[in-house]
Amino acid sequence: SEIELTVLPEVDSTNREVAKRLSTAIGNTPVVLAEAQTAGRGRRGRPWSSPKGENLYMSLGISLAGGFQALEGLSLVLGVAVARALEEVGANPIGLKWPNDLYAFGKKLGGILVEIQGELQEGRVQVIAGIGLNVHMTRAESVDQPWTSLALAWDREDWRRSQIAAAMLAEISSSIRKFEEEGFAPFREQWQARDVFQDKPLTARDGDLSGLGGGIDAAGNYLVIKGDEFIAVKAGDISLRVQ
Ligand code: BTN
To answer: Which residues form the signal peptide (predicted)?
Structure first.
């Protein structure tokens, strides 16, 4: 399907904007980029710091075959696709924190918010995927975790947001095609190679489970190593234990 690209100077949230466009779109893939967001959203209801002109805020509408079971895999596939795009444009290496936070040198560089729109129709589900990437940002208010930006992490100022967005769209569309045809399996290794938690102490299930990072299983669940046991974690935040 054809990409329908819109670039806005300011919007509440590019995810909301794509949701509006998805309901009227026929077959096309709406993509919305904004210079600033007044109500940028993160996962778990958190706000997403979205100052003007410094970062990348992009959302796209995806019509996905395979229903709701496919969604968990999709989150991880998107993380891999975005990481690959960033590495292609020189932001290498990118780390992934389960399910799909983007990391550089141990700090959060960006995140992906996946939301479902509407009902399952003819075996397809409409998904809105929003990507937030810190590009030129060197200071931020009210960010509740260690963060970085492309400029800070690689000490370079010549990042071009249009080039980054184009690389992301290309990687995302080819990854989604592959995911629909072959499922999650071809992505497991690529996700795992970027796992920021591998062999590191972590807690999951809001602190109830602690162990070492053990990568992901074939379905994309995160595995926590406790003694000689692997425990699969589906939902809930995983956070590195503060030492
Ligand atoms: C996270 O919590 O890590 C996910 C952050 C996702 C932020 C992006 S910015 C573009 C899109 N629009 C939003 O309101 N959120 C996503």
So the answer is: none
